Amino acid sequence: MSTSAIDRAIASGRLIRLHPSVYAVGHAALRPDAHRLAAVLAAGPGAVLSHTSAAAAWGLLTDHRPRIDVTIPRARGRALPGLSVHRNRLHPADRAVIGGVPVTSVARTLLDVAATRPPRILERALERAEELRRFDLAEVEACLERHRGRRGAGRLRAAIADARPADPRTLRSWLERAVLALIDEHGLPRPAVNLDLHGWEVDLHWPRQRVAVELDGWGAHRTRARFERDHARDLDLEANGWRVVRISARQVREDRGTVAAALRAVLERTR
After folding, report:
1. Which of 114, 219, 206, 144 minimizes the C-alpha distance to 175?
2. Residue pair 103/96 in contact by the 8 Å Cβ criterion
3. Is the model's pLDDT at 160 over the cut of 60?
């Protein structure tokens, strides 16, 4: 179309300008993906949706900001109203496509979120990626390896520490020792350790109060079979009159006082 033809189409309402050289056809009641694609087109060849906008496209975060994040490969570029432009050359593995919109991969998106958003937002994005089955530890670690020393890499590496596979026996032994020490520090009654209840092995339990505790690391439910077995055990124990409490490795490391208070409350209610 010539410039004059475009001008006539705009004047008649057949084209609606979204960005320089990017138009909606016939109406501007566009879905979020259409606005994201328009932003990427406006940013030029090689551009991708990135950062918080990419996290929203993947379903990892909500994003109500008026600006859209894009990453372009050029060192320099013009400012674009309505866009937050990041300049960086991306590795091919850092690129993906969602519904026709070029976007950073989940792993690269998490790295960019780690670099630009508060830790609690990164944690929320990681949790959501896990819920949606979009978190791939190998891909995240490969991304971190490609971007050693990059801003956000240390924060993301620390955030996924619990997801790295560890010897389950080592993790379990450390968790048991840590929780038993916590119980002693706060004057709680000592539980029985690693005994069978109704055919299930339970990490800790108090027979008089009929309270059982299961200790988990983040990687403990990485398989469907383990996930289903643990939930079947919890249901069976509850059906047999036991209160089941789950405590995570992170809670033991970072929130010991809350864990102790919760255990005390449960034990006193069920005594």
Report:
1. 219
2. yes
3. yes
From 107, 136, 162, the end of a domain falls on 162
| Number of domains forming the structure of the chain | 2
Phi, psi of 200 (to 5 degrees): -115, 140
Band the pLDDT of 225: cuts 50, 70, 90: low
222 phi and psi, to 5 degrees?
Answer: -80, -5
Nearest CA to 67 among 88, 89, 43?
A: 43
List the domain range (segments joined by +) for residue 218.
168-270
Kindly report the backbone phi and psi dihedral angles of residue 226, in degrees, each rounded to the nearest multiple of 5, phi listed first: -65, -45
Backbone φ, ψ for residue 244 (5° rounding): -105, 125
Can you spell out the DSSP letters for 173-202? HHHHHHHHHHHHHTTPPPPEEEEEETTEEE
3-class DSSP state for residue 95? Answer: strand
Domain boundary among 162, 188, 207: 162
Say if residue 174 is in the same domain as residue 154: no
Summarised one tens digit per residue, pLDDT across range 8-33 is 999 999 999 999 889 999 888 889 99
